[in-house]
Each structure stands twice: as structure tokens, then as C-alpha cells.
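Ticket opened by: R.M.
Priority: normal
Category: complex prediction / small molecule

The reporter submitted a protein together with calcium ion and asked that the result be attached to this ticket for the collaborator who will pick it up next week. Submitted input follows.
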Amino acid sequence: MHGFARVALMVAGVVGCAPPALAGGDFDGDGRDDIAVGVPNEDVNFVIDVGVVDVVYPRDDGDFVAQRLRRGAGGVPGTPANFDAFGRALAIGDFDADGFDDLAIGVPGKTIRLDVHLGEVDVFYGGPSGLSAARLQIVTRAGLGSGAGGSDEEFGTVLESGDFDGDGFDDLAIASPLETLGGGIRIVRGTATGLDATTGALIVEPGGPFFAEFFGARLRRGDFDGDGFTDLAAANFERSASGLLNVGVTYVFFGSPAGLSPASFATLSQADFSGQVMHENAFFGLTLESGDFDGDGFDELAIAAGASDGSGLVHVARGSASGPVPSTTISRTDFGVPAAPNDSFGSALTSADVTGDGRADLVVGVPGHDLAKGAVAFLKGSATGLRPVRIFAARVEGGAAFDDRFGFMLATGDYTGDSRVDVAVGIPLDDVGAVSDGGSVTLLAKPRAPRMFFTQNVLGVGDVAEARDAFGEVLAR
Ligand SMILES: [Ca+2]
Ligand SMILES: [Ca+2]
Ligand SMILES: [Ca+2]
Ligand SMILES: [Ca+2]
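Result attached by the on-call engineer:
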């Protein structure tokens, strides 16, 4: 289990989807984006860390319908087991292009036959009544026809969607820390009947694999060269270089009519950015996000990393016809607040056109801000790129507490259905009443949404917040 335990330690966002214009996922097609929350640490009926996914479908006036997805209940087949970690990763895509968004769910701890924690991906398809329990698709390594894989491969630890071959069907990228022993990414193509789970091309790290690192630990889609084919950014933030540990590296693999090619890529390192030097434990690529911040038709790539003093940085590479070009570096000091070790600036990122001016904006999680009450920083897109606006203090029901780490996880979508982008903030370390780390999700919406806070106590899915559920740790985006 060391793979995802190790990644969980890095306390960043996990995966997601959605280019700037199309943030969020609308599983029931009612025009409001829905909120899918992965709770991989949920225990059910004494099965430990089996995991669930809670989906909130917003309705008018603050009403909502909640749906709990888990194996072996609610019409979903399967026998859940300890440490499945269902919901460790989520990705929204329209894999069958029927107009209803679908949800891919990573189950990296799934034991298959005798292979402990081999992992699988469970895909639920959207429709007029939301995600359908009756139409579950299971994607496995064996099914992809390229070897069965083995114990601790943790297939499905990281997911990302994108139409990498431009055929109109979203495709699914699935990363596993121990495939090839240094991490590998499988690309499963979308079709009119859903994902073609019988084949999955493998991308390994250029020059690698590198033993015990994790190529694919972060994935984000975007069109970084503006050719109309979605590209895939993939980080190995544990890459060692020049004898230094955890320097990190990020690649961009370019989409084409034939899909992503392992041979067509760009490489980005922290030292490529002005004023930055290679250093140990930088974890360059700890979080990735894309967005066309300057509105020129090329997506930018935002890459989080640590500075040598341990404070957080967000590097931005500008999109261009020849791919991403290192451009600027942002830190908490750009907001008039001194950077400090463990401010965790950038450990979560999400982008969408929040202001509605046609350019993508960037929301940066700063969970270490203000003695780890946490905060989010907002940067507005402009013709010259991102412009720091302000840091918003933690907004937590009942008041922000130390170690709430507001901003731990972020997603964007139009959850209120007013055609404006809202921000969902996952606060997994929020105590729910006396329940330690029960977790919550807060919406930041303008105008204010009728309901702004969600915990498992308000969902009505036959469950309540329990200690260390960490609801909000994983948000589909
Ligand atoms: Ca669909
Ligand atoms: Ca496709
Ligand atoms: Ca492209
Ligand atoms: Ca751009």
C-alpha cells in the first residue's frame, strides 16, 4: 500500500478533469453541475477504508438530492473489502458522448484474486436520473489485455479524462505507481458505447522508468499547443536528479488523431523558471492545473512546487504553438503576505472563468495559511496573464479552527445553475461537531448559494460523519 499512502502524505489534490470553459460535471444533465466527493477512508459495516463516493445533485433554492455510490449496495454489484479505497481518485468525462457526464472512480486498493491491492477503476455513466448504478463498467489491468498486473500495483491511484484523440469521446488516463515499478499511465479510449476497456496504451516516463518513484502521480489535461487536441500533463514529483531527492519533473504529452504519443512530449523542470534553482524536496509537479489565463487560445500549465525554504510556489508555463514555455512564478508574497515554510501555497489548484470575462482564473489553496486555518488565493486572468487579487480567509461552518486546513482540495463548477462558476472547497480535516476530521465541503458562490456547507450529516444517505472519514479529501473536478 505504500504507493497511495505515500501520495496521500503529500496532501494535495488528487485528480480531476474539465478545461476552463467547462468546469464541473453534470451527471443528470439538468444544467447544474453536481458535486462528487470521494471518501476513500469511509468504513462501512466494519469493513475498514472500503471507501464510498457521495454525489450531491443541487436543485433549486438550496435543495439537493444525494446519492451514495459503493460496491455491494444500491443495486451496484460487488463485494467490498478492507482497504479498497473506492473513491481515492475521481475523473469526470463524457466517455460515450451522450451529453451526460460520467464518473470514473479509482479503487486502487482492490484485491483481485490473490493480487492484493492490484486495483481497478469503476465507471458509472450519467443519464437523466444521474449516475446509473445499473450500468457499472469495471476497468482492470487484465481486461486491458496487457498482462494482469500484480500485488500493490494500485491501478487507478490517479485518473484524468480528456479527448486526447479528438474523436469527440472523452478518453481516460489511469496512473498506477507500481506499473513498470516506476509508474505508468494507461490510456483507455472513449467510444459510443463507453470506454473501450479491452485495450489501453501504456505511457512510461521518458528515460525511465525510475524505480520507486511515481510517474503519473499528478495528471491534468489542457491544450497547451492550441492544436485542438487535448494534451496530458503528467508529473513525477519524486524524480531525483543530480543526487538530489524529490526534485520533481513534469511532462506534457501532446494529443493527436492517434491519441497521446509517448514520443511527442515536452519536459519542464523547476530550474527552467527564472530565479529558480534545483533543490531537494521541491516536489515540482505536486499539483497541476491548466487554463487559458491570458485568453490567447493556448492553455497555460500551472505547476506547484516548494521553494528551498519550504514555502509553496506556483509556476506558470505559457501555452504556445510549440507547447508550454516557462514564464512566471507566484507565491504568497505576491498577495502581500510573507511566504513561510509549510504555508502549502499551491497544494491544491483549480481553474475556471470565475469572473466571466472569457479568460480562465486560478484559485490556489493555501491550507497552511494563518496557523493552518487555511485560505484560498484568487488570481484573475488578464491579457498579460494571471494577476494576484487577494487571499480569502477560511470560511468554515461554526468558524475556522487551527488545522482545519481550508483549501486542502478545490474544484470548480456551476453548482447553482446561474451560468456563473462557483468554487467547491474540500475541508477533510474539519471537525464536524465533536467528530474529529469528519470533513466538510464549502461552496464559494456569488451570489451566495442558499446552501453553502455540506457534511455527511446533511446528505441523508444513511450515514453520518465519523472520525477520520475526511469527507472532502477528494473532489471530482
Ligand atoms: Ca455520458
Ligand atoms: Ca477520444
Ligand atoms: Ca494539443
Ligand atoms: Ca494562453
